[in-house]
Amino acid sequence: MKIDSSLMFDPVMVGAMAARLEEAGFDGAYTFEGKSDPFISVAAAAMHTHRMELMTSIAVAFARNPMSLAYLGNDLQNLSGGRFILGLGAQVKAHIERRFSMPWSKPASRMREMVLAIRTIWDCWQTGERLKFEGEFYRHTLMSPVFSPPPNEHGVPKIFIAGVGPVMTEVAAEVGDGYFVHPFNTQQSMDELSLAAIGRGLDRAGKSREDYSVAVQAITATGLDDAGIEAAIASARNQIAFYASTPAYLPVLACHGWEALQPEALQMTREGRWAELADLVDDDMLNTFAVVGTPKDVAAKLVARYAGKADRISPVVYQPDLELLTTLREEISAAL
């Protein structure tokens, strides 16, 4: 199981932090579409590293189009020397329509078509064959030599897709090279939702599980001292409650009979009662969604929960610093 870390830092700092994470022995690192563009951060990391895989986890797919993503993926594959993974996620309707001012419809079908369109564009560049992709959502039929990059000597990037619901997860397995398990997951939801849907998607595409990657991000409440652990626990409660307020994540709550929590949490966010959200998460829910304890404790829990199910693991920690991340990586590696 590969051990990854986040690169959720200011883009000015990303390059130096990526170099330190690589030196610390991490197998991969990912950026996130939050307060800055995830591709800019990958580019900075690529120029300061030599071995570590770099990925977007995630870039918002529907904020862009297949052609723009194809160019980005091709350039970052070259810049990283073949170490880039294009990680895509759908986001939710409100953000696509109201934050990005882009169309939203049939997200699973749109994601399938987007990935197929990107692959068609890459194939055009790799082989020189005529570009012809005509789908329900995207149409790409023009590629002049002046705009066509030469074949990528590193091959085309892998595409990982994030999802929570069963339909998107099946699509991720059907057309993607890997699947990002959302941090809002539990041992039970992994088995009943994610892995079951991945199996159906792989079967539909005639693909083998051995040729497919499952990458888990896990909410991890830990620290280097008692004060750090307590602060991380408080942060984890807030994070769990925030995710619980999102209707798209209801299937995970339903695995445990906690679906009534979703409308309550959603109403609190609508009323701006952010400080009260954490009170909804009791110790049982905390320990179901998060791994809690010292670095050694959480390493053992992560391995117990995900070994044999995930190919990559990334602990999502509160206010990460290099010492904590390095300690976690060493403890997880020792526990494997």
Overall mean confidence score, pLDDT: 95
- Strand order within the widest beta sheet: 1-2-3-5-8-9-10-12
Report the portion of residues in β strands: 15-25%
Biggest β-sheet description: 8 strands, parallel, barrel
Structural class by helix and strand composition: alpha/beta
Helix content: 40-55%
**Secondary-structure element pattern, one letter each:** EHEHEEHEHHEEEHEHEHHHHEHEH
Tally of contiguous helical segments = 13
CATH level 1 class label of the largest domain:
Alpha Beta
Our Rg estimate from Cα atoms comes to 20 Å
Beta-strand segment tally:
12
Low-confidence blocks of residues: none
Distance between the termini: 8 Å
Shape: globular
How many individual domains? 2
- The CATH superfamily of the largest domain is known as Luciferase-like domain
Compact summary:
The chain is of the alpha/beta class and 336 residues long. The protein is built from 13 helices and 12 strands.
Describe the structure.
- By secondary structure, the chain is an alpha/beta fold.
- It folds into 2 domains: 2-223 and 294-335, Luciferase-like domain (TIM Barrel, Alpha-Beta Barrel), CATH 3.20.20; 224-292, no CATH class.
- Helix content is 48%, strand content 15%.
- The chain has an 8-stranded parallel barrel with strand order 1-2-3-5-8-9-10-12, surrounded by 8 helices.
- Helix 3 (66-79) crosses helix 5, helix 5 (107-127) packs parallel to helix 6 and helix 6 packs across helix 7.
- The radius of gyration is 20 Å and the shape is globular.
Protein topology:
Elements: E1 2-6, H1 11-23, E2 28-31, H2 38-46, E3 53-56, E4 59-60, H3 66-79, E5 84-89, H4 93-99, H5 107-127, E6 133-134, E7 139-140, E8 158-163, H6 166-175, E9 178-181, H7 187-205, E10 213-221, H8 226-244, H9 250-254, H10 261-270, H11 283-289, E11 291-292, H12 295-306, E12 312-317, H13 322-335
Parallel strand pairs: 1-2, 1-12, 2-3, 3-5, 4-5, 5-8, 8-9, 9-10, 10-11, 10-12
Antiparallel strand pairs: 6-7
Helix pairs in contact: 1-2, 3-5, 5-6, 6-7, 12-13
